[in-house]
Amino acid sequence: MSGRWPPGPWSLRTRVTVVTTLVVGVLLIAGAAGFYVTLRNAVFQSLRERGRTAVGVLADTVRATDPQGDGALRPGDAEFPLLQVLDDQGRVRASSPAASGRPPISDLRPDAGHPTPSRTGTLGKEQVFVVASHADTPGGGRVLYAGVSMPGFVQSREYFTFLLVLAVPLGLGLIAVSVWLAVRRALRPVRRMSGELAEVTGSGQGRPRRVTVPETHDEIAQLASSVNLTLHRLEQNVTRQRQFVGDVSHELRSPLTGLRAQLEVALEHPEDEDWPSVARHALNDADRLQRIVTDLLLLAKLDAGVPLDREPVDLGDLARQEGARPRRVPVDVDAEPGVVVLGARGPLLRLITNLLDNAVRHARTSVGITVERQGPDAVLTVADDGDGIPPADRERVFQRFQRLAEGRKRDTGGSGLGLPISRDIAHAHEGTLVAAGARAGARLVLRIPLAP
């Protein structure tokens, strides 16, 4: 099973809003809690320091005079009005006016490890903060308390809690609405593109359809530009496919029409026909049909990217093998030994055959083929002494079913697929095939990387 979460029914806008709201909610709660804890610690630290000062002043007074009685103590710090002095038995021996008549305000007992401990507690219905200390007097040991009522702190804590409970949901609601509207606005061009793409069809009728590119310079504008580029490429591919289908239909119709016409004429007067001659003509048309279908099948495989079974192939051996075949004009082969490439022997042989057939078709007296190393490449050149290829047509000859006027005069049975197939085979071997300039005739140059 994949570790990814399964897709849910929520839209992207909903998911972004929910995730953002949850993250902000967690951060708000954590920030509020951290602020409260920091504020509480700061308040108690201040109280602790002021309380220790107050109980220290009280300790000096007790050691000097050992006061007794209610109201006998006077607070040195107005913020700590609750002062008490207890004896060893825990009885209140002296107190300040604010603590008169009250029982001990705490049960804290200082010790050697904590000479001035502090604690919060309750005194009646009040919450108080108490700091304790110890003092020795001639009458015995005394426990000293300095305390302060904390109604303000309690009220502020309740107010803070109420504010937190009220403000966090309200803030999260505002954030959720803001994110929802912001994502909706950000995705508006995407919705527009989606609607425009839904209207795009492959009919080719009307003007080419494109999506609207937003005026913003962000990722969505880049996406729209990429979509338009993809639509442009798809349109070009569809146009080429339609042209290809039309050219195929035309090329196949010609031999089929000729074959049908011959057979119909022969069948009208069967007793007057030379049937072996009719069969030879029909066989020629069938051979032409077979060549076209074979070429189309090879083109389909190359276009589909069918992997080739590669092996080390000596390009010079292939050139010598194909150049030795008898042709209309002699073929001069000049091949360096050991020019080895990593390729498919059959397609490479087909490539050389196509180049030589094309050269022989246009040559006057001879054709030359050379194989050599040039840096990291193996270079095969086929040259003829014919009329050559005009510079304006050096790329057009590699288009499918494109034949120059001079080629049609010399060979009416060609299909115009030989050079396109040869270039596709070169590309399948990470190579190139171009029509180069020459002083006389045509010169086709093949480059393929040498085998490692």
TrEMBL record:
It is found in: Cell membrane. The keyword Iron does not apply. It comes from Actinomadura harenae. It catalyses: ATP + protein L-histidine = ADP + protein N-phospho-L-histidine. The keyword Transferase applies. Keywords: Kinase, Membrane, Phosphoprotein, Transferase, Transmembrane, Transmembrane helix, Two-component regulatory system. One of its GO terms (cellular component) is plasma membrane. This is histidine kinase. The chain crosses the membrane at residues 12-37, 159-183. It holds the Pfam family HATPase_c. Residues 184-239 form the HAMP domain. GO terms for molecular function: phosphorelay sensor kinase activity. Its EC number is 2.7.13.3. Residues 93-125 are annotated as: Disordered. SUPFAM superfamilies: ATPase domain of HSP90 chaperone/DNA topoisomerase II/histidine kinase, Homodimeric domain of signal transducing histidine kinase. Its main location: membrane. It is an enzyme of class 2 (transferase). Gene3D superfamilies: 1.10.287.130, 6.10.340.10, Histidine kinase-like ATPase, C-terminal domain. Residues 247-452 form the Histidine kinase domain. It comes from the Bacteria.
